[in-house]
Amino acid sequence: MTPHGQPIPRSDGHRAGAGAAMAIAAMTSIQAGLALSVGQFDRIGPVTTAWLRLVWAGLILLVLARPRRSDFTRSGLRACLALGVVTAGMMSLFTLAIARIPLGTASALEFLGPLAVSLYAGRRAGLLRWSLLAAAGVVLLTQPWRGGTDPVGIALALAAGAGWAGYILLTQRAGDQVEGLKGLAVSLATAALVTTFLVGPAAIGSVTPSQALTGLLLAAFAPLLSFTLEFLALRRLTTAAFGTLMSLEPAIAMTIGAAVLGQFPGPVGVLGVAGVVTAGIAAIRAGARTPAVPAPTAPTSPPAPVTGGGAEPVAAAATREPTH
Predict the structure, then answer these.
(1) Is 34 a member of any domain?
(2) What's the predicted TM-score (pTM) here?
(3) Distance set, CA 243 to CA 24, 93, 234, 324 (Å)
């Protein structure tokens, strides 16, 4: 229903439905790419696996977008370069994390980064309870009372979440100054260069042609396919709706981890993921602005479009994460 109580136009409903399907497909693509990447870890290592995906994604986008120096202001270029450095750290940390802990657990812990951005942006008293719910979900996920918990894997996932939060903030800055995919091409190319220094020449020289081809296929899953789907989804959904859907990613990661990697969570782990997902959805919905109501003297004026308020930082993950 519209703010005036009128039914939503059929065409708008179809657009919203298509947008939701694209957003879910994008998240599924990201997590499937990550799950399939795990098979590369024993052969070339987690960071080298991330490096291959970034190199291929950066090269393909450089060819497609063809960025030129004249396309960027000085501040816009600095933002894209900084975004690339953060992307390199985020992807490297997350791949190291999923080499040690289950994919669903790592994804839920990493999601705390954008959730923190959304909660800070909202800064409403009512959001405190959702922060507490997210914290309870983390405790259930990590289960510190069990001896088998991997503290290094947990720390890596949380560090990747901090990187994701920084990525969101830098993406907003770069997106305000650079149009289209040009900024993304520069940031991914920068991330590829940074990870090249991280893996070193010895690791790069050990990559076989078949492993390089596998890296190309994984890059097609994420970030290329996922970014395209997210871009199309954002053209059909409000910011708040997109951010709410993004909160489902830890649950999608847990499902794919079980289906592809055989990582079946126990009941406590499922409750933990549910707590983080619920906190994310609630925080975004609570932080969204309500639609503006037109003045009674101008009944024919269309209502203002619904846009995100506090939800906007989380939705900016649409241009994120090659992490994932």
Answers:
(1) yes
(2) 0.79
(3) 11, 23, 10, 16
